[in-house]
Design a protein that fits this description.
By secondary structure, the protein is an alpha+beta fold. Helix content is about 25%, strand content about 15%. The chain has helices at about 1-20, 20-30, 55-60, 60-70; strands at about 95, 100-105, 120-125, 130-135, 140-145. Strand 4 and strand 5 form a beta hairpin. This is Cytochrome c oxidase subunit Vb. One of its GO terms (molecular function) is metal ion binding. InterPro entries: Cyt_c_oxidase_su5b, Cyt_c_oxidase_su5b_sf. One of its GO terms (biological process) is mitochondrial electron transport, cytochrome c to oxygen.
Length: about 150
């Protein structure tokens, strides 16, 4: 009985080797049967770009590109200089806040107005109780408490 089962298995194996299945041949034909044309791109690259070095504006992205585009319009998107004149006891720098205190930074030695060589910012706490005097440049800061804005969403 075992010999009969073995001979039947060998016969089926030999048939499958000699005659490949129809589904395997059909799937191979379908896979390689034709080629679809490549779609045209929806974007168009500039013509005549051979031997051309792109400019900084061509390569800029993000905030750098936004800054370049703003400068082309004569605008600045970042504050680069002090926003108020030097604060004195008669005319202090007014810091607005909805709280009773606020952390403020001063580059120090800013009486001349040129702070490009100062790399350290001195941070201090300005309160609404009394004006604060910067220990390095003697600039005077005072806090003005304002009402918070109400947003209607």
């Amino acid at each position: 009985m075992a010999a009969r089962a073995l001979s039947r298995t060998l016969t089926l194996t030999a048939r499958s080797i000699l005659r490949p299945s129809v589904s395997a041949g059909a799937s191979a034909v379908r896979t390689f049967s034709g080629r679809a044309p490549l779609p045209e791109p929806t974007w168009k690259q500039q013509d005549n770009l051979d031997n051309v070095v792109p400019t900084n504006l061509d390569q800029a992205t993000g905030l750098e590109r936004a800054e370049m585009l703003a400068e082309m319009n004569g605008e600045k998107i970042f504050d680069e200089h002090m926003i108020t004149p030097f604060g004195t006891k008669e005319n202090p720098v007014v810091i607005e806040s909805i709280f009773d205190e606020r952390i403020v930074g001063c580059p120090g030695d800013c009486a001349s107005g040129d702070t490009r060589n100062n790399n350290e910012i001195r941070w201090f706490l300005v309160t609404s109780k009394e004006p604060f005097v910067c220990p390095t440049c003697n600039q005077v800061y005072t806090l003005k408490k304002i009402e918070p804005r109400v947003y209607n969403f």
